[in-house]
Design a protein that fits this description.
Chains A, B: Pfam families: GST_C_7 (PF22041), GST_N_2 (PF13409). The first copy, chain A, is an alpha+beta fold and 230 residues long. Chain A is built from 9 helices and 4 strands. In chain A, strands 2-1-3-4 form a 4-stranded mixed β-sheet, covered by helices on one side.
């Protein structure tokens, strides 16, 4: 069956930065599944009407439509059970906790670092929409939310257990990457794609892990276009 | 075979507060294993010489001697594989990450909150030893390390993903507690045993989870002596 991923794009259609889409792309690469992407922009709500959803990622696999990045990862584990990414039972439960850490402690810190770069990476026609929706969510202007120095401090604190674990194992999930690695990588790839701001110190084990993650699965992420290529 | 746990005690021999011993006690309770404890105090190094180790927990199971709380939990999973606490493979890997979070982000915050109460809970003959070793480790006096207000702020931040997950499931590991719950509970039980300082707000899902944890396995922890009983 043909797999299609609706994937957020920026001012260049090849610039793909959504952290939630990156998790799914890495899960697809992990399972060695072929797929095509449809470049999607923030306001193209009608293009997702078939999924009864208003944001990406949306994945179609033949007649099956799945929305929400974590639900897509779970779907892929059910439909293609070899090489699980999330697992089941207590493995799944423990990666659900890790998802909370990524979304509530790490991603907000990254947002403070890259928000203004992110605005620049977005298509000009989407910037007013992005500003309006995000400023309503945060109750502050994007310029007020932007605070790279404070963001880096928060990020460093949130990554303390990640750095410690990456001294013990090559990847968070062991000798090879899986779900926990993809959840964290999605958010870090988002920041890396839109911004040249430093995220972690070069000596931090997270930096070496990120470099490894760019190379895994035939450099599925390392080959992607970033703001450096524009 | 008879199982014996060497377990840190305080100024009353029945006061047991080591976070690392509490993890093991909960793992033993989880597996329904009978065991006896040997009350041990900080300076009784010779009592552990048989284990070639100088701190607790130390567990003996017949002729088997196991040191280090996490290694003991792993041993129990191998020797008594029904009802795993840590699991294996990616489950084990993910709980190893959670251990890092507990030890590096949560326990240090708790220490700032309860350190002076902890000093009071320790046997008078051990207080000079405790002060000397901990002040050397932190490079500061215990009084300088003590900062309950800052500790509570750090704890709240570190518990953000825990609170979020506990809105989704009764326990961190799902509908019933296991390894991740015991790792976090060990540290929170340590603080709760020696101190009446508030740790989290009553409305925080972590508060309700802690109350549940006191009740599980026939109130294995809820029946334990705390500073409130002295």
């Amino acid at each position: 069956m043909a797999i299609t991923l609706y994937d957020l794009c920026g001012r260049d259609e090849r610039l793909r930065f959504s952290p939630y889409c990156w998790r799914v792309r890495m899960a697809l690469a992990h399972k060695g599944l072929d797929y095509t992407t449809v470049a999607w922009r923030f306001q193209e709500k009608e293009a997702l009407a078939f999924a009864n959803y208003d944001k990406v990622p949306v994945l179609t696999d033949g007649d099956t439509v799945v929305t929400d990045s974590f639900e897509i990862m779970r779907y892929l584990d059910r439909a293609y059970p070899e090489a699980p990414v999330l697992g089941e039972g207590v493995s799944l439960q423990r990666v659900m906790f890790f998802k909370q850490l990524v979304e509530r402690s790490i991603t907000p810190a990254l947002f403070k670092i890259v928000v203004l770069d992110l605005l620049e990476a977005i298509h000009p026609d989407d910037r007013a929409y992005f500003r309006k929706t995000r400023e309503a969510r945060f109750g502050a202007t994007l310029e007020a939310v932007s605070n790279p120095e404070q963001g880096r401090q928060q990020l460093k604190q949130a990554l303390v257990p990640v750095s410690a674990q990456l001294k013990e194992s090559l990847f968070l999930d062991g000798e090879t990457p899986s779900g926990a690695d993809y959840l964290l990588f999605g958010s870090m790839m988002w920041a890396y794609t839109v911004s040249t701001e430093p995220l972690v110190e070069e000596s931090d084990p997270v930096a070496a892990w990120f470099a490894r993650m760019l190379e895994v699965h035939d450099a599925a992420a390392g080959q992607a276009m970033t703001i450096r290529d524009l």
